[in-house]
Fold these 2 entries.
Entry 1:
Amino acid sequence: MKRLAYILPAILLLLNISCGSNKKTTKTENQSKAMQTEDINQMPQPDPAPAIKFQKPEVFKLANGLTVIVVENHKLPRVSASLRIDNQPIRLRNKKGSDDLLSSLLGTGSETVSKDEFNKKIDFYGANVNLYDGGFYVNSLSKFFPEILKLTVDQALHPKFSNEEFKTEQEKLIEGLKTSEKSTPAAASRVTNKLAYGQHPYGEITTIDNLKNITLQDVEDYYKRRFTPNHAYLIVVGDVTLDNVKKMTKENFALWPKAPQVRDVGLPAIINLPTEVDFIHMPNAEQTELKVVHRSDIRKNNPDYQKVLLMNSILGGDFNSYLNMTLREKHGWTYGARSSFGTNKYGALFRATTSVRNAVADSAVVVTMAQLNKIVNEKVDPKVLNNNKQKYMGNFVLRMEKPATIANQAYDIFVNNLPDDYYETFLQKIDAVTVDDIQEVAKKYLHPDQARIVVAGNAKTTVPGLEKAGYNIKYFDKYGNPTQPPKMGQQLPQDLTVQMVIDHYLSAIGGKDQVAKTKSTETVYEAKMQGTVIKMTNKKMAPNKFASQTEAMGMVFSKEVFDGQKGYKMIQGQRQDLTPEDIKTYQNDTQPFSEIGLAKTGKLARTDNFDDNDYYVVVDNEGTEHFFNVKTGLKDKIVQHKKIQGRDMSQSIYFKAYKEVNGVKLPSKIVISAGNGQNIEFNMIDAKTNSLTADDFK
Amino acid sequence: MKQLKLSLILILLTQIQVSMAQKIDYEEYDLPNGLHVILHEDHTAPVVSVGVMYHVGAKDEEPGRTGFAHFFEHLLFEGTKNIPRGKWFEIVSSHGGQNNANTTDDRTYYYEVFPSNNLKLGLWMEAERMRHAVINQIGVDTQNEVVKEEKRLRYDNQPYGHFLEAIKDNVFTKHPYKHTTIGKMEDLDAATLDEFIAFYKKYYIPNNATLVVAGDIDKEKTKKLIEKYFGSIPRGADIVRHKIEEPPITQERHAVYYDKNIQKPGIMQAYITPSMKDRDAYALDMLSNYLSDGKSSVLYKKLVDEKKKALMVGAFNLTQEDYGTYIIFGIPLNDKVSLEDLTKEIDEEIAKVQTDLISEEDYQKLLNKVENDFVNSNTTMQGVANGLARYHVLYSDTSLINKYLDIYRNITREDLRRVAQKYLNKNQRVLLKYLPKKDDQTKSEK
């Protein structure tokens, strides 16, 4: 009981809630049903607030500097222990990744216990153990805890690094990075840290090149330099006694040698610059990642801390915040939007983050910045401030459910150099914050005019809007290196003509002579769809004769015929003569190579890029886009646009694997995509040239 | 020799020390309107959790209306007759509370956690949701957009994000487990307001709900409050459930899925297993731990550690009310290792558990693991409440919260071999290749 020393009196504030109605509810259960109905339509008032019991943790220190924090709690038969080494971060430069490799290598064997033996025992006891470059975490049933702790400390303090394990872990890390290579969220996080932290160690990113550059010796050096007890904390929580922990700590940690005192050099500053957009073009993004960041100057030992906490809570700390209520609840653009102020004493960032659909990413930037400006420029509604105070007070109570909270608070006090009664007086400080305070700290700590707006998404949909909004835009690759703006389609070479594109195409498929010699083509393709074979036959003949037919299960599904003057369409047995408009379109086509005619009727629209290839896009009279490969000259894709029930629908058709047939190249594979993943792949099963007569178009 | 001695000591050690895993005391009863109530009193911290589990999940959706159950998890925060639109979260957080909800294929769960002086508020809010939630077009339209973003965030924009979708689609042919919980966006777009209202009236009724109150409460007072807030909510029409039978897989199915967010392929095997209520489901859980949980597990040790063929390998038993799905997956370490090779290696280990008994020591390891998980699942009032609700709603036996450890303990090594023989055969599975996608590839092939 001695340790339950501090009991905070009932937090009167919790009673202080405005509910929209002051109606007193004094009714008893025996009252009439009508009264009861009224009662249950009324939001109930809270009961008197519960007292918070502050359990004091036990703290002791070993001669080598290790501080041990113990919180006894015998409710469940389990114990957790974590070792946290609070060293100032250092720049690793081209050896960045040594820390990741150390994390991988810890636990792969000690001087006396092999990796296999260690893994086997940890698993046998059903425990969770994680070793990393800054310490370890273990969680186990209390009956196995002494053994688990001993095994883990042995791996951490007496590691035996082998070259074989090093090589394995190095490859695993490299291959692991590849799994997120195309991930938009991963690219956004990586680049944000690199740009916002700049020269600060937190801005370094682990790359495949760095990982390849690191040797086992680098990792061992890093371990020797960093894995030291001078600024280390061991936090033990759960079903243990203080005496036992003292005994265990002595046995396991007493011989951990203190490192020579090194004077920490100053860390590079994190620099805020005038607001700009840092754009990462990710063509595969399904959603745009948006992060507004700048240096955070608030620390937990700063008297402004509670004010900033509440200010951020109102801005983007929870569901009800400015950011979430506009971006999610008002506009429906995102699943959520949040903000936070980092407080790490070595360097930290303010971040406002969200993931929005691509089409509204530019607007989301504008709305996000408007919310940041709002909290700087406008006074917060007193009711909103009060709601946020109540949230902190209540959540403070809820956190007490976990014994680890007490231990984490004690750790916080040590690491951030806070007064001993920091957490006991925390809620009083929260309560004292005023509406004016909120605006004052917003002006002081929030800098919408000095922020990096990192956007990872599709440049094509988002950049025009951002340019319109007047942002200065810089471009970066997915590793944060400056890069050229992606090709947006407006920079067609000045002297390029449609004819040149078509000429390149004609020479790619066999040359003008061969094309001129080919008076007709007849191709047959087959596709399989859910077990059914679909057969498509196309006949084309100079100057403009055309016939096409699809069949499945021996039945003609659709048919289209044009003999040069007239023709018809047949869809599921329904025959329809071609309209004068259709006839005009067919007459203007040039068969068997409609691209020849495209040189006269088409317009060069833009350049584009897909599957890492560049394309010239030619648009025909009907609005269909033809994609000609800049390098090979071949036509790889067309996109047709149609209006169906008032909605724009597009359909892509890909032409692949061009194959020579009597001197001209024809696509041996045609993929028709409806855009939603329902693709049909046709493979060429037969192709002839100069085999057709006028009879084939009846 | 040294290894053997060590093992013996380990086993001895475990058997001597008697587990002290705690017992969860609870009381349960039904209100006349059919609402099932479970109370758990624990004064350790001044915290109370109020949760309601509705026995409705994605598997109850009408054909062509996937995503409905999950959509309600959004819709039912929009407001009620007495809670104005958009105020739900504000009321909770301004009273120091936290709340959330989640949906599976089988059930939907809503909860609040408050400092215990707000027990009444928690009960009132859940009663409001059950009695007269407001379902209108503006709420449907807003949440429809939000859910689309949730889908993009969680699945469409994540490497390997469509892995479960691809498995479910290929494993199930008739049963609604074929669909994802989040559903198809076209289905949600096509749904009418009347359909949403009908779904609410059908499933959000007291006789399809279980209310759990856990934490710093006085049981007798709490019962009176529950009667006051929930007692007059009218009982709804009984729900008739028809289990859709999924024909067993009798011939190995091959499938391909293309994901544009990845550049390393993966291979997945999936088998249909019995309902989570079946004793065999417990055995399959243990078997998945044996195969891939921890660095000493057979698949990790062999494929990641020793042969260095896999970057990642895992096995898990996705347990559900009607059927389970046993999934084994692997990502090759590099392109020198083919998916076929990885499959062969995994198959060898399955063949071993089908032929040989696992060692006594490994068996003891599995029991220790189960015990550790059990203790860790009851660390918060919210965790206890969720457990109590789940055992009542999905297993029809609340007492399992204290008994399930014994069920695992009664599974024998022979049981593990038997379930491997019964459920994990090649002709009973889907073999799914999960490959990097290019622009012009179809998403899936069968």
Entry 2:
Amino acid sequence: MCKIGDILLIYNATNRRKPVGMHPFIVLDDVSGIVRGMFAYNFIGLLLTSANTDEKKEKLKQIEGNFPISTDDKIMNNDKNKDNRYSYVEADQFFYFDKSKIKYIHIGTLNSDIYNLIVEFIEELSDNGVTIKQILDKATKIELNEDIDI
Amino acid sequence: MSEYRRLNFDKLNFSDDIISYEEAVKKSPVLQVPQDAIVKISTAEKDYENKCVKLEISY
């Protein structure tokens, strides 16, 4: 269960052996590929940042690459378990994931109309000259064979 | 609801900067899973290459 519009909780991720906690992501693309010619991935995620106070909401609103997601935009799996807060998606940062390198759980789905607005928003960002940042730590670096005879 | 539309990646401009995962998520609060969360196993798949069983779980 990892398709476009899904909301996944990336579980106990570590970076340079330090735990960085659990973070929710929206699946932006579910097609496998290779980025920068050397990082294999099988889905791309967008980080969801919750805005639990008015102050934080106002701060996140000012950031050009952020797109607001209301609680009604998300369809969470289980009423009892949901952690459904007003949040922002960081649309100018693409996280490339190799599923074999992470643990994740499916916690919900984003309304398709809202997802499509995010796609339009990303395209508008790019039209306005904003560059997209790529986070590649959780993709798999392809080792080049140095023994190739030329 | 409409169908999910795929993003055209060819239209985008990508930065050359290298940002770590840790750096990218540091401003985002960590999500807490409640103690009484019900975790369900949706599918189980044998992975012979990595000698493991992959579980698909949701909560």
